[in-house]
């Protein structure tokens, strides 16, 4: 049982007992880890606000072998998620990012590049930069880093280059654009505008400065990514319904705080996982925008 030190972003916190919780963290050196935090819920906890969602902390933990949880022994707060008390859209965007990290990364699989991207995105959410653009950039680069980047130029089936046209077929299951021949007979194919395809290319470059994209195109891109992420995860992300309000500014502190708690509850895994999955599959079928043949 070795004691390890690294930087960590809190992505899920579940109450375990009256005084303890289980924290899922995305760390710089060890990827995702799950650790028991004893005494975290006591009034004068040594962890204080280091165990809040999306805080960045310097942690020390005891790495347990086999399947048991690691044990968090120290957490020194480095950065709070300040947007959480200032703007609902930015709060939701942050929670969505935490949910994607939890769902799409594996325990003990380090991705320092993804850690940097997440930290960068949290800072830009704190600066109240456009949340729709920030999550689109996050999603497309996350997909690239975990080896699930959609193909934007070449048909995902035959590899031929897809020429510029007003609308192009995009396979949700095949993972990218499809040529005229290959789209025939494919399921879960949607038709997207060339502008959305261009926007996806721009965001996936991962530059710190956000590209300026027309709000209409951003809206259409949100719809495409909602379906793409849901297909990849096999269910709708829990925070996805909240993303519809991301285009609207809100800085009412009281509203943010009360909804903060509501959204916090949504992060806790449900016990009726199996029922949930069935419902989600139905939603996915209904959501198919157009099936081309
Ligand atoms: Zn093809």
Topology:
Layout: E1 2-15, E2 21-27, E3 31-37, E4 56-63, E5 70-79, H1 88-104, H2 112-126, H3 131-145, E6 167-171, E7 176-178, H4 180-183, E8 189-193, H5 194-204, H6 215-233, H7 253-267, H8 273-287
Parallel strand pairs: 3-5
Antiparallel strand pairs: 1-2, 1-4, 2-3, 4-5, 6-7, 6-8
Helix pairs in contact: 1-2, 1-3, 1-7, 2-3, 3-6, 5-6
The structure holds zinc ion.
Mean of residue pLDDT values:
85
Give the distance, in angstroms, between the N- and C-terminal Cα atoms: 57 Å
Mind summarizing the main beta sheet? 5 strands, mixed, barrel
* Bound heterogens, unique: zinc ion
* CATH architectural arrangement of the largest domain: Up-down Bundle
CATH superfamily of the largest domain: Recombination protein O, C-terminal domain
């Amino acid at each position: 049982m070795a004691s390890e030190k690294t930087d960590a972003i809190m992505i899920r916190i579940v109450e375990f007992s009256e005084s303890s919780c289980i924290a899922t963290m995305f760390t710089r050196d060890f990827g995702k880890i799950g650790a028991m935090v004893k005494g975290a819920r006591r009034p004068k906890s040594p962890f204080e606000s280091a165990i809040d969602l999306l805080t960045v902390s310097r942690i020390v933990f005891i790495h347990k072998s086999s399947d048991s949880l690691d044990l968090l022994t120290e957490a020194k707060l480095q950065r709070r998620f300040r947007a959480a008390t200032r703007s609902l859209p930015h709060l939701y965007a942050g929670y969505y990012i935490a949910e994607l990290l939890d769902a799409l990364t594996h325990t003990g699989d380090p991705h320092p590049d993804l850690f940097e991207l997440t930290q960068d995105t949290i800072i830009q959410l704190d600066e109240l930069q456009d949340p729709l653009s920030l999550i689109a950039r996050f999603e497309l680069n996350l997909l690239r880093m975990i080896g699930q980047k959609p193909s934007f130029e070449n048909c995902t089936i035959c590899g031929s280059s897809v020429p510029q046209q007003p609308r192009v077929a995009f396979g949700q299951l095949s993972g990218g654009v499809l040529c005229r021949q290959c789209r025939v007979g494919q399921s879960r194919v949607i038709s997207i505008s060339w502008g959305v395809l261009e926007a996806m290319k721009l965001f996936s470059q991962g530059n710190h400065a956000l590209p300026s994209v027309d709000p209409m195109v951003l809206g259409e891109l949100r719809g495409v990514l909602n379906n793409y992420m849901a297909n990849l995860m096999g269910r709708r992300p829990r925070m996805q319904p909240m993303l519809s309000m991301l285009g609207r500014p809100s800085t009412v502190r009281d509203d943010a705080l009360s909804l903060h708690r509501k959204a916090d509850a949504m992060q806790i895994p449900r016990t009726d996982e199996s029922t949930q999955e069935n419902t989600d599959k139905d939603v996915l079928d209904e959501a198919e925008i157009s099936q081309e043949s």
